[in-house]
Design a protein that fits this description.
This protein is α+β, with helices and mostly antiparallel strands. It contains 18 helices and 16 strands.
């Protein structure tokens, strides 16, 4: 029983290190074995404490830097300018282009075979002409003549001693190179005739044509210079030019490499070439046939600073059929990887703004509830995906929140924390199951948090949207909380509320403002168990001014989190008739 959590903790620690910083990946320490598991009861008690400590340490510690050039310190401005110069030089040299594919091997071998066949007879021809004696003599004279000129410069004694050896060498050279004079004479004759014809043509050319050619050469040079550097875009942003978004993208790579320009240049070049090899452009419109995964990774809402939020719900893979469809074999795992990259690319293009004052990063929420073991079929593709994301998508995560974290994952994170950079640790937040919703609310407003994670955000809600703010209240142990909502005459009030964990008593009534008016019980007080529907909704039409009073009684010894919101509609919007409370 204790070995399985230990293995998962070791694997999780390995993933945490991989998610940390790609620059340190080669120095990744060997994951030590996790200490022997504690009893389940003690582990559960320590989970909340560890989660709260980790969350408090990470909360608010990371703040995104400005992308405005005027706000950068001088060393960072200098690094940005140097980075741009390196990029311009690399573009001119074509370093962002993929090398041409090598030709097929068959086309290489066939010409070689023909060349050898044609060259062999030529090599054998001199051997057939060896009996001839006149030509070698002529060759000897031709060879000896230059030798006498060289010998004139050498002392007489040395010339006498070297003459016999030189003559024998000359004879051997003459015999081996016997056909060369014939070939040379033919080539020289052809060259001389060619030069004569060229000179004759040049003499007949009108001087005006020369002037027109001289006038045309600057235009041709201008066209070649303009067409030489191909524009390179990444996430729709050019790497060079006057586009204000360019600085934002380049600063991502610089910050990922701590403003080390050469390392940032290597990372950018590698990312551009990888995008071309991976086929990002064609991948955007590809139909990968995985609609079942829409509940595994999805975008929903924004955080309190406007960052889009991406949720990763690995508990969905408890469905064995879905798990096999995603990770059953190598081909399926490769398709899953493409699907994950496609989803990220679409999110970047549709939800981020690379303007200097825009939102250019996102928040990731990873739900570890019922997640599959880290040692399953998905481990290899998960690590591959993490490596690709960190190497090719720098500084796209503003905050990474882990919710419903089991105790062994917290232990693994604590073990590997010394190996993470402070910048990386400042982005990570861990929350136990009991603290998950409240932790999310620190960074994401409840109206932006989906219902399944403790918030009030629902798809296709006819009454409320994310623009309708939610009020948060804390109900103390063994206490009662009342919420009063004023209502005007001839209107309908609509409300919804949620108590995390429920186990409270809830009721609603309408009290008119006029003296002697009768109180109307809208919702009879009843106890709401923990397994009740997560949200209570109700509506009530009134004909006189008054207030709606919601009463929540918490008999438990622990505090509760109450979420509610309401809106008042005119009678024309809702029609006539009394609408009783409804529960959804």
């Amino acid at each position: 029983m204790a070995e399985e959590p230990q293995q998962e903790a070791a694997a999780a620690a390995e993933v945490v290190v991989t998610e940390a910083a790609p620059a340190e990946e080669e120095k990744k320490p060997e994951v030590p074995p996790v200490a022997e598991a504690e009893p389940a009861a003690e582990a559960e008690k320590k989970t909340d404490e560890a989660a709260v400590t980790a969350d408090d340490a990470g909360a608010g510690s990371f703040k995104e830097e400005s992308n405005l050039v005027e706000d950068l310190p001088d060393p960072e401005k200098k690094a940005l300018d140097e980075f741009k110069q390196l990029i311009a030089a690399a573009l001119a040299a074509g370093e962002f282009n993929l090398p041409p594919p090598p030709p097929p091997p068959k086309t290489k071998e066939e010409p070689k075979a023909e060349e050898t066949k044609t060259e062999e007879p030529k090599a054998k021809e001199p051997a057939k002409e060896e009996p001839k004696t006149e030509e070698p003599a002529k060759a000897e004279e031709a060879v000896e003549e230059p030798k006498t000129e060289v010998a004139a410069e050498v002392p007489a004694e040395e010339a006498k001693t070297e003459a016999p050896a030189e003559e024998t060498k000359a004879e051997a050279v003459a015999e081996e190179a016997k056909p060369d004079p014939e070939e040379k004479t033919v080539v020289v004759a052809e060259e001389e005739s060619a030069t004569k014809t060229v000179e004759a043509i040049q003499e007949t050319v009108v001087p005006a044509a020369a002037t027109s050619e001289e006038a045309a050469t600057p235009e041709a040079e201008a066209e070649t210079q303009a067409a030489a550097p191909e524009p390179v875009l990444i996430w729709g942003v050019p790497l060079v030019g006057d586009d204000e978004r360019t600085d934002t993208v380049l600063l991502k790579f610089l910050r990922a490499r701590e403003f080390k320009v050469k390392e940032a240049m290597a990372m950018l070049k590698s990312a551009v070439l990888w995008r071309k090899r991976f086929g990002i452009t064609s991948l955007l419109d590809a139909d990968l046939g995985l609609p079942e995964l829409e509940n595994v990774v999805f975008y929903r809402g924004v955080d309190r600073e406007g960052h889009p939020v991406c949720y990763n719900v690995y508990g969905e893979f408890q469905d064995k059929d879905l798990y096999e469809k995603a990770f059953g074999d190598e081909e399926k795992r490769e398709r899953f990887l493409k699907w994950r990259i496609q989803l990220l690319e679409c999110g970047i293009l549709s939800k981020l703004d690379f303007a200097p004052s825009g939102i250019c990063s996102m928040v990731q929420v990873t739900d570890l509830k019922n997640s599959p073991p880290m040692l399953g079929k998905h481990r290899a593709v998960t690590r591959q995906a993490v490596a690709l994301l960190q190497d090719n998508y720098p500084e796209f995560i503003a905050k990474k929140v882990f919710i419903n974290v089991p105790w062994w994952y917290l232990a693994a994170n604590k073990m590997m924390s010394p190996f993470l950079t402070q910048r990386t640790k400042s982005k990570f937040v861990f929350a136990s199951p009991a603290k998950s919703a409240e932790t999310l609310f620190r960074y994401i407003a409840p109206e932006q948090v989906p219902v399944q994670f403790g918030g009030l955000l629902k798809e296709d809600d006819p009454e409320f949207t994310t623009s309708d703010a939610v009020t948060e209240l804390t109900i103390k142990p063994s206490s009662k909380e009342t919420v009063e909502i004023p209502v005007t005459e001839n209107s309908t009030i609509v409300w919804e509320l949620r108590v995390l964990g429920w186990e409270v008593s809830y009721g609603a009534e309408f009290t008119p403002d006029a003296e002697g008016g009768y109180t109307v019980i809208v919702q009879k007080t009843r106890k709401v168990p923990a397994n009740e529907e997560p949200i209570m909704k109700g509506s009530f039409k009134v004909g006189e001014p008054g207030k709606l009073v919601l009463t929540i009684n918490n008999p438990a010894s622990k505090k509760k989190k109450l979420l509610y919101r309401s809106k008042v509609k005119s009678t024309s919007e809702c029609g006539r008739g009394l609408l009783g409370p409804t529960v959804t």
